[in-house]
Structure formats: C-alpha cells, structure tokens
Hints:
Structural class: mainly alpha
Strand content: under 5%
Largest sheet: 3 strands, antiparallel
Subunit structure: Component of the eukaryotic translation initiation factor 3 (eIF-3) complex.
Mean pLDDT: 87
Domain PCI: 48-207
Low-confidence stretches: 1-13, 224-233
Shape: elongated
Protein name: Eukaryotic translation initiation factor 3 subunit K
Number of strands: 3
Order of helices and strands: HHHHHHHHHHHEHHEEH
Oligomer: single chain
Helix content: 55-70%
Distance between the termini: 60 Å
Keywords: Cytoplasm, Initiation factor, Protein biosynthesis
Subcellular location: Cytoplasm
Amino acid sequence: MGREVQKQPQQQRESYTAEQLVALNPYNPDILPDLENYVNEQVMLQTYSLDANLCVLRLYQFEPERMSTQIVARILIKALMAMPAPDFSLCLFLIPERVQMEEQFKTLIVLSHYLETARFGQFWDEAAKCRHILEVVPGFEQAIQSYAIHVLSLTYQKVPRAVLAEAINIEGLSLDKFLDHQVANSGWILEKGHGRGQLITLPKNEFNHPELKKNSADNIPLEHITRIFPILG
C-alpha cells in the first residue's frame, strides 16, 4: 500500500500535487524529492503547507542520510513566519537533537524564543546577525512584523510610537509611511504629537478592550439553568 504511487508510471506520478502525495503515501520515502521541490516552491511563491513540511521531516527521520539541512532550515523559517501558530515547535519536535545543535538551527531556536516572549528588539538584533540564513526566504520580515503587530494589539489600546518602532524594526520616514498605510487601511488613529512619544490608537478587539468579550454565561439558555436548580437543591 505504501508503495502504490511509486509503482505508477513516472508521467502519471507527476500529475499528483504535493498535497495528494502526502495524503496517499505519507510514509513513502520515494515522494521525498517531490516534497523537497515543494518546499522550495513555497519559498519562491510565498505559499505555505505545514502538512507537507511535517511530512518531509518525518521522512527524514526514517532515512536520515537523505536529510537536506537547507530544506530543514527553510521549513523552520517558514514555520517562524506562521506565528502565532505553534508550527515551529511542531517541526522542531521532528528534528533530531544532533541536527538542532548545528549553528544555523540554534540561531533559529533563539529567534523563536525571542518571538514567543515578545522580545522584539532582541529578535531584530539577532536576525541582523544571521541575515544570510533568513534572506533566502522572501517575505520573512513582513511576516514577523505582522506577528509583532498582532502581539501589540493583544496588549495595547494605545501603543507608543517608540514601542511600535522597536517591535516592527522600522524608524523615521519609513515608519511614517507605514503608519499612513495603517491609518488608511486598518483603522489606526494617530494621536496629536510628534516624536517617539506619539501614541497610536489600535482598533478595538476583545483582548485590548475586555468589555467586548462575550460572557459565555449569557449564551446559556434559561431552560438549562432552571434544570440545574433542583440538582443543586
């Protein structure tokens, strides 16, 4: 069963998408070249498939001599870009400890820790030192900026300009242009004032405005509550 796709003619095999290969033969090492090509395609086209990438890492476990550290690095970088989803931890679980101890992977683990703990200043400082690892994946910086804004929106109703600048690693005129775009497209409001002390009002959500969060008790039908009273009595 596991070799079913392998036995089919090469021309017919190539008609399968990567997702179909994963669904049909997730434990067949013969699909590894197709999935590795798909990882590179995700990088080039800025798409993402966690299931396919996890399948690659599982197959590397079965045949470690075929492991490509370049492919593993790209999978981990794409997983970082998916935060706040826990994809990085899921991928790391499938990577042998001896591989994790390689310098580039230790660096990616450090970057992950900084992001998980919202230490964005330290993250960008560390990222600048390993630009040669990260710049092979287009869209990385923009994805992390989006994650940083997500974290800030969970915490702040009004975020100081200096805090935002550190979190997304943008300053000066570039930050002005970014803010203008957010005001026009995302409902941000700039408070009066200038310089690093300027405040930016973020859109309301149930985290930065707890009163917006629905009380689950409000959703319990009255008849369910009345049924509980005799039990309590």
